[in-house]
Each structure stands twice: as structure tokens, then as C-alpha cells.
Amino acid sequence: MIKMKKINKIYGTGASKVEALKNIDLEVKENEFVGLIGPSGSGKSTLMNIIGCLDVPSSGEYYFGGESVENFNHNQLAEIRNEKIGFVFQNFNLLPYATAYENVEIPMIFMGVKAKKRKSMALELLDSVGLAARATHKPGELSGGEMQRVALARALANNPSLILADEPTGNLDTKSGDEILAIFENLWKQGHTLVVITHNPNISARAQRIVKLIDGTIENNGK
Amino acid sequence: MFLPQFLRDMRSQKMRTFLTIFGIIWGTISVVLLLGFGVGLEQRLYKNMHGLGEGIIILWPGRTSMAYEGLGKGRPLRFLEEDAFLLEREILQIKYSCPEYSKWDVKLKYKKNTYSSLVRGIYPFYSDMRNVIPERNGRFINRIDIEQKRRVIFIGFSIKEELFKDEPAVGKYISVNSVPFQVVGVLIEKTQNSTYGNRDEFTTFISATTFSSLFGYKYINNMVIQAHDPFQNEFIQERILQVLGKKYRFSPKDTEALLVWDTMENEKTTKAIMIGFNTFMGIVGAFTLIVGGIGVSNIMNAVVEERTKEIGLKMALGAKKRFVLGQFLFETLLITLVGGAIGLAFSYGIISAFPTTSIEEYIGKPTLSFGVGLVTVALLGLIGFISGLGPARRAANLHPVDALRQ
To answer: What are phi and psi of A121, to 5 degrees?
Structure first.
């Protein structure tokens, strides 16, 4: 699914130079459930951004689905993010002025799905996370757990092969966190590949494999 | 779903939105009114200019300034009626050529009212060439008047006022140097800003044949010539020198032998001045509009700032640069066009309500022409596009990771 060879990410130059990632070699196979852990500042988010094609490495090789993406331009990267990757953020990142189903529709808009089909697909996705009844509510009217479920529905909008989540339960109480976790497990069983940054021991316990990052290098690559 | 968001943004910042749109409204009104007044003035100038006739040449005999075929220089020339017809026959580009007799200080009298007038002796087609058009119920000198040397007269509207006051004039008899003439027509009211002799409103016209037999004139005062195409006037002037030079034996290069007034020259000058004037007006207006555009650009920059995180999110979810670019350009154009539409409506109101007073004769009536509308819409579109481009590009060039971190 993804393969990284000697990935480095350097911010700044000279005295302010920061090596966020050093010689990362990482492979994630299809339908794997990988937990990414490590103290803050260890480079988890940077690695996540590169895996998610939001950022490009300073050096090294990165293959997504067999394709080398280092030389992709903005539009090609946008297409990969749109079609192959579903993002779930710690702070949900929902548009506050849009209803739940409108938020779910966003990736489909960029893919060019027609309005009518978009709406029915969005409603279906909301139903799959148990939020059909809340489709016309705005984020301000939803609980944290509900917002994250909307975000999950959005991440699944274009049926991506990879789901990338950054602390998906970080802002949730235990009960809501468990609900989200259950959905993740479900997705995994359905064949999705999951890469999840987490501090939540429940998630790391259920992940197939744990990758631990310390100071920009992989310390532990396995369970 | 992006339009509601845009409207919500605008609503949440009512004062800011109002001021932005106000800038565009103000600019639009400036452009439309300045150009509208320019067009009105131009139309009025042409209308006044055409009081004399459209693109005509007026030709007087002069004095030779070159020795030619054994004849010395300084020889005065005089023209006959037939010379006008000779030119019309010889020069294909001429549509009409009319001989014109003139006599000043002719005493006109009706009952106890008298008036001392310029009388011109002319042919019927003079009416079209010089825009000497009769009021309803009247007519101009016609072919039968010429053939029968009728004693009929066509009078300017100011002379009609002097002699007849409120009485109708057509059909009445007036004495012209003690000879009775029947009034057949009165000039319609027209404005005229250039003349040779006197304005038509103070002039009377009779048949050329009547004129020559009544006053015993053999030579005409001048000719009035109209081309099929006024842009050939220069060529026609050269040909006139050749044709009349051959008949009267002066050099075709002797430009002083004929005194020529080509009214197209005035028209060209006026046109050049008006182009300059309208360009100046347009630029002044456009600058006001540009200031409005700068306001819009500023606002859009602030909007990009406020929505950075959202832009980052959309990019993460797969929005391409051109989508972000398009969204912000669309919003900017929308603000500009809404302001522009309101501005155009206001301008239309102001122009419609413009008082038609006596100053209209001089400055004309401001006009919201198709051209003015087109220029304004084009300017608005351009300004909207330019002022939106900077902020939109800034938004589209945001790095998704940095934008998301906001």
C-alpha cells in the first residue's frame, strides 16, 4: 500500500534547521491497522502529512499504491488525497456553517459527483456511522463524538483505500472514543487500511502493528 | 453550498460589506455619469454643428495668386449658377451642388412689423443639404417655384416671431423690398453653432430664379456642395480646382482662387476633442472605480485570512488550486457586480431625473448609452477580476499543512 525509503524531512536552514524525520523506512501493507505512537515533537504529524500527501519529503522515496509520488505536482497530490485517502483529525475540522451531510459531501464535490447523487451517498454514509437522524444538524448542534463520526463519514466519502487519523479520540470522552474505535475496527474488517496516530492505549492495543517514533526516527517497528 | 457561506460571511460583517459595495457603487456612478455627460455633450455639439448641414463644403470665389496661361495674378473670380451644375456633372463624388445668391438688408414687412433680413436665392435640394427644414403645414422652395419664378418665400423662425408674433405665417403675404411674396414655410426650430452670414433662423430663402430676376444678380455669392461620402471632401476640393481652373483659366494648384470651407474639418476637430474629453472623463471615473476595487481587494485579503483553516481543510480533502482560486474570484466578482448593478441603477435614476433646462442647449443631456454601459461593465469586470486575483492566488498557494495548523 505504502512504502517509504530513507525519508528525511528538514525544516528551515542553517542554525534554525530542524530535522523532523531522519531516514525513515516504513512499509504499510494493504488492510493493515497501524498505530503510530511517540512523544510530542517526535515527528508523528510530519510523517502523517507525508503519508497523506499533504506534504512532500525533503529526500527519500515514497511510493503510494506502487506509484512514486515525490515528483507529483499540487494537482496530482490533491487527486490522491481526494480519491485514495480519508482524513480524520483530532479537532474534527468540520465546516461550522454546513450541515452534517453537507460536510460529508465536500470530498465528493472535488471529485465531481453530481449534487443529487452526492446527497444520497452522504446520507448513506451518515447512516453507516449511526447519524442518519442528525443529517441536517450543524456541527454546533452535535456532541464531540457525533462530530467525529461525521468526520469519519466524510473520510469515507470517496471510498478511499487508506484512512489516516490523527488522534481521533484525543478530544473525546471514553465512551465516545470507544464508539469511534468500534467503527475503526469495523472499517478494518471491511478491508480498509488504517494508519492512526494515537496516545490511546485502547487503540494501540487493537492495532495490528505499532510504530514508535522518537526524535524523528523509528524506534520500534512491530508489535 | 459555497454561496450560502459567502452570504453568511457578508452578513456577519455588515458594515464592512456595505463599505466595500459602496466603493464600487460610487465608482460606477462616477464612470457612468462622467461618460454620460461626455456623450450628451458630444451629441449636442454635433447636433448644433449639423444645424449648418452635414459634411458640406461651402465655396466662394477668391482671387488668383499665380500667373497662369498668360493671365496675371490678383485676378478676382466670379461664379455663375451654371458653375455649380458644372461641378455636379463633372465630379461624380458630388451628390448635390447648389448655387446660392445672397443679399443683405432686405426690408421685410408684414402689417406694421418690419425686419431687415438676409435673403438667399437657392434651389429646392438646398433644404436637405443645409438642414433647412420646414415646420408642419409649410414647405420649402420647390421645382415649380424655380420654373415659374414664383414670388414665394421661406422664412426663419425668429423672423416669423418678429413679423407675425403668434399669428400663423404660412399663406400670408409679406413685402420684400416692397414686392409682395407669399410665405410658404417657416423653418423648424433648430440650433446652429456655426454660420456663414447669418443663422438660418434670421434668414429668408427664395427661389434662385426669382432672386436673380428680382434683384438683377448675374453672379452667385457662393456654392454649397455635398458629397456622397463626406470623407471624400478633400479629393472633391482638388477636383473642383481642376474643373473651375480649366473654365476660368487659373492653376489647379492655386488654392487662393477659391475660398473653401470644408465643414468636415470642424467635425474632425470636434471629434478629436471629444475623444480626448471622453477619455479624460473615463479615466477620472475609472480611477474612482479602481479605488473601489482596491477596497474590495483588501476585504478579500481579510476574508482569505479568516478562512485560512477552511482553505487548508478543503485542500486536504482534495480541492485543487483552481477550485480555491475560482471560489475567491467568484466572490470578488459577485461583490463587484452587485455594487456595479446598484451603481448603474442609481446612475440611470440620476440621468433620468436630470432637469431639462436652458443649459441643455449648451451641455446637452447626459445619456446612458449602450457604449457607456458596455465600458462600465467591462471596467467592473476587469476591476473585479484584478482585485480578486491577488487574494485568490494567495489562498490557492497556501500550503495545506500550514493552513490546517491555523
So the answer is: -65, -40
